[in-house]
Amino acid sequence: MTTLLVITKEPLPGRVKTRLTPPFTPRQAAALAEASLSDTLRVVAATPAARRVLVLDGAPGPWLPPGFEVVRQCPGGLDERLAAAFAHCSGPALLIGMDTPQVTPELLTVDFADCDAYFGPAEDGGFWALGLAEPDPGLLLGVPMSTPATGAVQRQRLVGAGLRVRDLPRLRDVDTAPDAHAVAALAPHGRFAARLARYATAAHR
């Protein structure tokens, strides 16, 4: 069975989702990040897994459900932090962030019987999920992160290593306010959508 990894920062004002400000305040952006993280963790908790690991920059809070191991993110660039997350695994692993609260247990239930890797492309050119049957941190080190070509480079790295890659559906990350509204519409019953609706209602009073 697969280890599920979630990599994230503690949702503190000014440290997370800074591209949501404006129109949201830093405190509102952090609250939206916490709601997105809560929805993500709830889905991971509902997905069959060998282990559930939160790779965290910061301290856990009341948003963390039971059943998760918590490991500290290593210092360095994002490629180094992602690579180190996989280094905690000795068997099949799937890593996601907290930017896609519309994710479902069905999307995270992966089977490596006929592939070596899963790749979840994001609409902004990055990726929202990466799964490896045999975690190898070297597959991530040196990949340029947070660029429009990140996903393409990462996927080519997998293919170039001779891995059989299976693609997951393309999802939209929550980075900007338009992203937030689009994603909330896809998961209207989650905490993220409820929090966003509350702020939208307050703004129109």
Q: CATH H level: which superfamily?
A: Spore Coat Polysaccharide Biosynthesis Protein SpsA, Chain A
Distance between the termini: 49 Å
Mean pLDDT: 96
What is the count of β-strands? Answer: 7
Strand order of the largest sheet: 3-2-1-4-6-5-7
How many structural domains does the protein architecture include? 1
DSSP helical segment count: 6
Q: Helical proportion?
A: 25-40%
Q: Provide the CATH topology.
A: Spore Coat Polysaccharide Biosynthesis Protein SpsA, Chain A
Shape: globular
Structural class, from secondary structure content?
alpha/beta
Largest sheet, strands/sense/barrel: 7 strands, mixed
CATH architecture annotation:
Alpha-Beta Complex
* CATH classification class: Alpha Beta
Report the portion of residues in β strands. 15-25%
Rounded to an integer in angstroms, the radius of gyration calculated over CA atoms is 16 Å
**H and E order:** EHEEHEHEEHEHH
Low-pLDDT runs: none
